[in-house]
Amino acid sequence: MTSAPDTLPAVLARGPIDGLAFELDDGPTIEFGRGALATSAALRDLPAPVGIVASRGRLAAARAAGLEPADAVVFDDIRPHATATLCAAADERLAAARAVIAVGGGSAIGIAKAVAAARGCELAVLATTYSGSEMTSLYGVTEDGVKTVTTDRFAMPKVVIYDPSLTDSLPRRAGDASLMNCLGHLFECGWNAGPADATRVLAEVGVRQVAAGLSARVDGAEETAKDHLMLAGMCGGMTLASGTIGVHHAICHAVGGLTGSSHGEINAVVLPPVMGALRQVIGEAQEELAVPLHDLLDGDCAAHETVARLRDRWGLPARLREVGLAAADVGRVVDQVDGQAVEGGLGLERERLASLLEEIW
Ligand SMILES: [Fe+2]
Q1: From the CA of 240, how far away is ligand 1's center (Å)?
Q2: Beta carbons within 8 Å of 202's beta carbon, 6+ residues apart
Q3: Neighbours of ion ligand 1 (CB under 5 A)
Q4: In the chain, count of helices (H) and strands (E)?
Q5: What is the rounded radius of gyration, in angstroms, for the C-alpha atoms of the chain?
């Protein structure tokens, strides 16, 4: 990492954020701030022709914020989980592109990553949610109800633009679900890291940004709120890149592969109970990470209860059946999660895992 450690605290002290740019070793050039898309030199340096992966709505928002060129070929069939069929269709549509620009959250980014990895071409991301996917070389492809997550160096973007104006048209529920995914990254990578690890520090910074964003939202300062929340999403992505996920995300990916439901909404269901189940092992880390959220909610409860309160306040689902999981498929989730090696990330004993999933079905 080159200048990020010097830059982030200065930015965090400032409140509203604009004009931040820095580079990470072996990572993307990052440009952050309202208007960053219109002024980005890195985006214009991509080799032509570029192809774009974006839903029509996200593309319109990006075009309004300055995305060029107007005649780029676009793949716009974006669905919650990238399937092998969808990725092949995107690859065919963007066959002439020498660089791919993804506009969106994890779904659009996942398809663009698969295309970039298959073709060895450059990738840029305009983030429009808090998925953090833009900060990693990880991507998942679903086939026959099983989501396989892989890593490829071409799936790591060269350029990431965080222009919070792109979240202005993000529906509130989709944004809140994406925040639950962001909290999933911050908490899970945070508790899997040691107290002095950079990943833990990033996770703490990220949770503070979530709290600052929600606080600004309550005050009606929508733009400031979105600046903070986008920074939280970036921190979540950085924790994914530098840290380790574990049983929480293993469950989310298994459920996502079987249902095709939104990864954010699945996080809303799974994160509080998994936090509760791991409380005896890493409760202290959870409590440290949750301090800004406790302060925000004036809550005198455990970290997992605070996250559940946020989830309920946002009207997000609390049961696996609400995100489309069939009762008969609970055992398939147990098999998939139990069969996975969770390197460096906390897991759950099979029996505990099974009873937890039954409880939250
Ligand atoms: Fe996630």
Answers
A1: 9
A2: 235, 238, 239, 242, 243
A3: 181
A4: 15, 9
A5: 19
Give the dihedral of Cα atoms 33, 124, 67, 222; nearest 10 deg.
-30
* 185 CA from centroid of ligand 1 (Å): 6
Half-sphere exposure of 240 (CA within 13 A, CB side): 26
The confidence score (pLDDT) of residue 113 equals 96
3-state secondary structure (DSSP) of residue 50: strand
Give the pLDDT band of residue 226 (cuts 50, 70, 90). very high
For residue 138, the SS3 value is strand
For residue 34, report the distance from its CA to the centre of ligand 1, in Å: 25
Question: Closest by alpha carbon to 264, among 274, 275, 256?
Answer: 256
Q: How far is the CA of 108 from the centre of ligand 1 (A)?
A: 14
Token pair of 140 as six digits? 């998942």
pTM over 0.85, yes/no: yes
Residue 98: predicted pLDDT? 96
Residue 49 alpha carbon to ligand 1 centre in Å: 31
Q: Tell me the CA–centroid distance for residue 187 and ligand 1, in Å.
A: 11
Mean pLDDT over residues 24-29, rounded?
A: 74
Residue 230's nearest CA partner among 55, 6, 36 is: 36
pLDDT at 353: 94
Distance from the alpha carbon of residue 311 to the mean position of ligand 1, in angstroms: 16
Whole-number Å distance, alpha carbon 70 to ligand 1 midpoint, is: 32
pLDDT-derived band at 26 (thresholds 50, 70, 90) equals: confident
**pLDDT of 93 higher than 70:** yes
pLDDT of residue 23: 55
Dist. CA 267 → ligand 1 center (Å):
7
Q: Is 115 exposed, middle or buried (0-12, 13-18, 19+ CB in 10 A)?
A: buried
Residue 8 pLDDT > 60, yes or no?
Answer: no
Instruction: Find where tokens 């899997």 sit.
Output: 192
Tens-place pLDDT, residues 99-118: 999 999 989 999 999 999 99
